[in-house]
Write a structure and sequence with these properties.
- With 357 residues, the chain is an alpha/beta fold.
- The chain has eleven helices and eight strands.
- The chain folds into three domains: 43 residues, no CATH class; 89 residues, Muramoyl-pentapeptide Carboxypeptidase, domain 1, CATH 1.10.101.10; 171 residues, Collagenase (Catalytic Domain) (3-Layer(aba) Sandwich).
- The chain has a six-stranded mixed beta sheet with strand order 1-5-6-4-2-3, covered by helices on one side. A two-stranded parallel ribbon has the order 7-8.
- Helix 1 packs antiparallel against helix 11 and helix 7 packs across helix 8.
- The chain is globular.
């Protein structure tokens, strides 16, 4: 009985202590769109203007809406046949917005809410979001492929792809050894998951994968657009072309490169190699194959969705283990579910309850 009373006293003490602390799950504050979307103040002029369409829906008519339709056409949400270059938010645009929201894991409202506009304005891969494979019914596998599900041919036990850097189309402010090191790490992340090896070749014309930095219209029908906007693009197997926008401020170390618009080279390289191997864009925000990347963000680790998608094409590397990926996915989900300020108090509560149990 005395032990029970002591437990009750301890519990009440903890309870009243917690009443003095900030709520573990505070009410969500409605953000001020004018401050929430300030990341785009370093964005290119065309996409920056999309902030003017915040909270608009079908039936709205605003100058410049035709540019948003071109954006959705560019990334596979509006076909040329249905594209109506007016400034009216029509039924076709609403359908495009809904598909965009579903493809990128956003709340499907059909309206240009703040989350949707923010995502539209983020720098991203130039490849279309149009994808051959639908999401699975259980909602956990969101990877996709190019139409026809192309992949590199050859024996799985002896598949070796060569890559080379363009002798004429490179950047000069990052030393070549550092660029090569970044790409070695990016290729190794994929080869750790699948039975495919990559090796650098000296002969650029004969390499399987050809890497270069290009400006504007560079002859492949997919022009770059200057700082931010489209960061890079790569073609499906077995094309092998891998192009990065030379206008970007590329970085291998954010401690050295202080520019607000700096883009992490390894993150983009890892993403584009996924395309080179045959993956299309994923709707899992944490996945490497998610299409957008904020400036000054490093995102290089494959997630479960990436690995399941690529292994469905090529099989598994015999030495690959899922354990580290699963733990990183779980920890990410935990961090996203609980605000960081509340996390320490949640931990304290768990420890105290463990002590008195």
């Amino acid at each position: 009985m005395l032990r029970f009373v002591r437990y009750i006293d301890t519990f009440l003490a903890i309870f009243f202590l917690l009443l003095q602390l900030p709520c573990l799950f505070p009410a969500r504050k409605i953000p001020d769109p004018s401050t929430e979307l300030t990341v785009v103040d370093i964005h290119d002029d065309n996409w920056r203007g999309f902030i003017n369409f915040l909270d608009l829906g079908k039936g709205s008519e605003v100058a410049g809406m035709s540019e948003l339709k071109k954006y959705f056409n560019r990334f596979g949400y509006l076909s040329e046949r249905k594209l109506n270059f007016t400034d009216l938010f029509d039924e076709e645009l609403e359908s495009a917005v809904l598909r965009f929201q579903k493809n990128l894991g956003l709340t499907a409202t059909g309206k240009l809410d703040s989350d949707t506009v923010k995502e539209i304005m983020l720098p991203r891969c130039g490849n279309s979001d149009d994808r051959a494979a639908p999401r699975t019914l259980n909602g956990t596998k969101n990877f996709a492929y190019f139409y026809g599900k192309p992949r590199w041919r050859g024996s799985p036990s002896a598949r070796l792809l060569t890559y080379a850097f363009s002798p004429d189309n490179m950047i000069d402010y990052i030393p070549m050894p550092e660029i090569k090191s970044v790409f070695r790490k990016a290729f190794s992340r994929w080869s750790a998951a699948i039975p495919v090896n990559f090796t650098e070749a000296d002969d650029y014309p004969s390499a399987d994968i050809k890497i270069g930095f290009y400006n504007g219209n560079h002859g492949d029908g997919e022009p770059f657009d200057g700082v931010l906007g489209i960061l890079a693009h790569a073609f499906s197997p077995e094309n092998g072309r891998f192009h990065l926008d030379a206008a970007e401020t590329w970085a291998v170390d954010f401690d050295q490169q202080k520019a607000k618009a700096a883009v992490d080279l390894e993150s983009v390289a890892t993403h584009e190699i996924g395309h080179i191997l045959g993956l299309a864009h994923s709707s899992v925000k944490e996945a490497i194959m998610y299409p957008s990347l904020s400036p000054r963000t490093k995102k290089v680790g494959l997630r479960v969705d990436d690995v399941e998608g690529i292994q469905a094409l090529y099989g598994s590397n015999p030495n690959f283990k899922y354990s580290s990926l699963l733990s990183s996915d779980i920890s990410s989900a935990w961090r996203n579910a609980i605000p960081q300020k509340s996390l320490k108090w949640t931990t304290i509560l768990v420890v105290l309850l463990f002590i008195i149990s």
